[in-house]
Each structure stands twice: as C-alpha cells, then as structure tokens.
Amino acid sequence: MTKANLNNGRAKPDKPAFIIAAALAVVAIVVFWKTATMGGAASYSRVGPTAFPYAISAGLLILAVWTAFEAWRGDFPKREPQEMAPILWIVGGLAAQMLLLNITGFSIATGILFAATARGFGRGPLWQTIPMGIALAFVLWLVFAKGLQLSLPAGPLEHLF
Prior knowledge:
Protein name: Putative tricarboxylic transport membrane protein
Domain DUF1468: 19-153
Radius of gyration: 23 Å
Oligomer: single chain
Order of helices and strands: HHHHHHH
Pfam families: TctB
Keywords: Membrane, Transmembrane, Transmembrane helix
Transmembrane segments: 16-35, 47-69, 89-114, 126-144
Helix content: 55-70%
Strand content: under 5%
C-alpha cells in the first residue's frame, strides 16, 4: 500500500500537528504519573484530591489521540506563516517581569511586561507604553495589596505608598 492509499488520497500527514499530539500525550502521562505518586491523598472518599488530575490527564490523552488522528488525515487548515518578532517581544516581556519582579516590584516589572506585549501587538512606542503600563499595574497593586490585603512584591514605587 502506498502512502496515498493509507491516507485515502487526502493531504499528506501534518508533522507539526504530530508534535503537538506528542506534547499533549507527554503532559497527560506526566500529570497521571505525578498524581499516582502523590503522597497523602485521602482515601476516605471515592472523589478525592486525585479525581480531577486523573480526569485532566484522561482528557489530555483523548486530545492527543484526536490530534494525532486529524494530523494523520491532514485535516488541519492551512496555517499562516508565523511572525517571530511579536512572539519574542511577549516572551521577552514575560522573562523581564520574572527577572525584575523582586528587584523593581510589581508595578515596574508588570509595566515592562505591558509595554513589551503592546509592542508585540504593534501598539505604541515603548516610551509611551512603559509609563502607561506602570500606572495601570500600580493601580492593580493598590487594589490587591491595599484593598484586598494580598501580598505582592513591592519595589521603590510601592514603598512610596
């Protein structure tokens, strides 16, 4: 049998979709394994703390099989080419926030994330979006840290208040 016969004359298998299916399967297996080896799970009830992780791993495994099946059939729509610059701006903003959170505090680190994400979406210059992001993040910090008494990292700006 040729590949065309196995595939019923349809489009060739979608290799990136197979990678996604494999990643889903790996995540499902890891969730299942970590749940199975989790200590201290209560055994007094049928539905305990392990019920939902098992359900999630089963759902992920079903999605992995379904994705692999659709990839084999070549039924995924044609994808547009990816632009890497916006992705790099957003991932860079997330990395900057994680690195700066304990140094500069919530408002400044999250303001930089806001500006990088806005830049990734093609909005405004950084000199405009960084102050806007810091102002919005500071308002959020006030609501959560002062209003709701939640603990968020404070930096020089937050220490003024």
